[in-house]
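Sample pair:
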Amino acid sequence: MADNDHGPGTRRTRGAHRMPARHSVLTRTVAAGGAAFCIGAVAETPAAEALSIILPAGGAGNTTQLNILEGNIINPQVAIPGSNVSSNSTAGGIAAGNGNNSTVVAGSTFWSQTINLAGTTGTGNTTQVDIFSYNVINPQLSMGGSNTSNNSSVSNVATGNGNNSSTTVTSGAGTTMVGAAVGNGNTTQIAIGSGNIINPQWSFGGSNTSNNTTVGNVSAGNGNNSSTTVDSTGGSGTTAVGGVTGNGNTVQTSFLSFNIINPQRSFGGSNTSNNSTTSNVSSGNGNGSSTDVSGGGGSTTVVGTTGNGNTTQQSNRSGQIFNRQTTSALPSLSFRPPTSTSGPASTQSSGAGVTSVSVSTASSPSPKARTTSFGGGALGGVRSIASKLSGQSGAGPRHAKADG
């Protein structure tokens, strides 16, 4: 866990016209009124690149989480020469075992007003929103070795909340306005650009192996054996409820989330992948529960989902696996030595009655040698050629001795 305290060799200074800096109250404590703001990779460690917000809620065990750029892992690996091995794991946005065996009564009495628009009312209700959070980015490049990845991401999980509980919302002659969710064990989960694993692997002279798992937007075992009552009793009483009303209801939305991108390219080796993605799961919610919404002498307006164990899921470009595998033979790195080149060479020879001249070069292919022969009777022609050749080589004239 990262520490927010500065080391002994680090000093923070301000201009002389300002008072010495003091740590903000929000750094380690919860603000008055139940609103908690946390900026950091984890709940206790502020950092500039992440934002996590918990909104207030009325009731018992309710949770509202907003994560922006939270819990990401960026781990590029390059080995020249050698191998890469990664074991990255990130998890967050988990609500489990909240608001069980609880009772909540909310409402307005005569001429009173009750307004709760920020959070939820009831027990064990969970709202989780992730924006570009809990991603793992782990590219691997190996020269002369192998790549092995073991990456996991878990986010937006709500289990075992709001069971064996009751919530009652009433209005007398006043007005009751409730936003988000009313009841027990209701879950709302939204993921945008979150829970992705990006793990391209390139190996030259080795193999690639991937073991990637991502899990997100899971709601299980919530709002069982519970009851919710929404009622307007007075003649002018008004109850307005938005979002979700009841027990164990689930709303899940994902966009560009929970994908695994794992292309594998191996030169001289093999590719093996074990990738799994699980998202937008709703199971075992709202069983043995009851919801009662009535106007009585007043009016009741309910917008959204009402009942027990209802599930609404939307997914766009999410929960996909991209795993193209390509293998190729290792390219040859041998080189042919360069061919030596020499200038033209000339050779002349004389024999009894015969004189021959040949010229050749080192270029490929070699030209055919040219040979000129003269008989012993052509003495004048021999002397003429010999004189010309001796003049080209810079030496004195040579005279062929004629027989007889």
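Residues 379-393 form the longest helix (15 residues).
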